[in-house]
Description:
The structure is a homodimer.
Chain A: H1 10-26, H2 33-39, H3 45-51, H4 54-78, H5 87-102, H6 104-111, H7 122-146, H8 154-173, H9 182-189, H10 192-195
The structure holds a DNA duplex.
Amino acid sequence: MEDEPDDDDPRRRALVEVAAQVLAEDGPHGLSLRKVAAQAGGSTQLVYTLFGGKPGLVDALYSEGFRRLAIAQQRALQAAPPPGDPARILALGHAYRGFAQTEPSFFSVMFGRAVPGFTPARSTRAASRQSTFGVLVQTVRECLDAGTLRAPDAADLARLCWATVHGLTSLEQSGLLGTDDVEAFVAAALCVPVDAHRPPGQPGAGAASL
Amino acid sequence: MEDEPDDDDPRRRALVEVAAQVLAEDGPHGLSLRKVAAQAGGSTQLVYTLFGGKPGLVDALYSEGFRRLAIAQQRALQAAPPPGDPARILALGHAYRGFAQTEPSFFSVMFGRAVPGFTPARSTRAASRQSTFGVLVQTVRECLDAGTLRAPDAADLARLCWATVHGLTSLEQSGLLGTDDVEAFVAAALCVPVDAHRPPGQPGAGAASL
DNA sequence: AACGCAGGTATAACAGCGTCATGAAACCGT
DNA sequence: ACGGTTTCATGACGCTGTTATACCTGCGTT
């Protein structure tokens, strides 16, 4: 009766690690159960006993992607100014874009329906969302509390920041943003959703970032 | 030697229409050559003679998606205030979101790597982009010329608007935006990238839209 | 210690996929 | 009317996810 994921099962973690490597190397299209199983030294049945099938494995990969994104967020915040500075929000945005560029296959699995039949489980989606979006909300809230940003609701502003950064990143990855000087444009654009809510008289985070 | 797409070939257009129907009904995962061929009353070879393979067919579907999006844009602008009013930009945003909700499978093909091996051809991507993004740039430029909006560059502001709307739409479709009252939030958020660049003293397009 | 039962694993098969080679049929210019 | 070219349908190949079957391993009982 006990069929909870049991995420600490070392065999599960090992298989997810192998699958993550295959995903990173061969892309979402090359992620096949036979390749993962072979590279893990077993048979495809392994995936079925541990994950119930490919969707289960991809679900674990989905979580793993958000876990890595959360790590990138954490590192970005550690290298950023202390809490209350809107530059921290920009740092999160750059970390987001950097993650998409470093792990485009993970990004596609998380946001782009890259694996044909897969839709993340509701609980997985909620948990993954919370682990990364919560950090952004907290960062925004610190700015509101410090008075360096003004907005009616922290979560709403965080949502808007996320959407802007995600849209820029997603369009850039799709090659639709326009090829001329993408880097500079994105760097400048990332300042807008923050500056738009900054009370006047404060120095902006500046377009000199990135 | 003549192997240009010849987009007016009625057989091509018919097959694209059938494929579009299969895509809309069964999703990107259910889009198989055998099903398209059967529904068109032929064999899979048809796709190879007309499109050179599945990527070619999907490439045509990609263009078709942007063509439909352009139509939605056109209709939205016809029902919007005359040129120069920033509300036209909002109307385009709502049309974009409406398209994503009406044709989610097309949206996934266009922006989300929904078909495993497919990447749009460079020329297809450029043409598709121009046909829809050009409209937005033009609409923004009219606002800049009318003085109802102020920004250093029309294309840059248009890019930012697109990214914001696309991010909101994409995250909403992925179920990651947050389930509580998505509609109202999106409606309000769509006003921000416009209001942020509006010279003070002008009445905003208001959050009462949508 | 030996047995029996349960669970996990590997093998092999099945249906479906995109793709391509083969033969037949149709079309078209000469 | 004929010869050449192009197109079409059929079937096969290798791949995919999934599943049934047989084996084998390990644990609890007697």
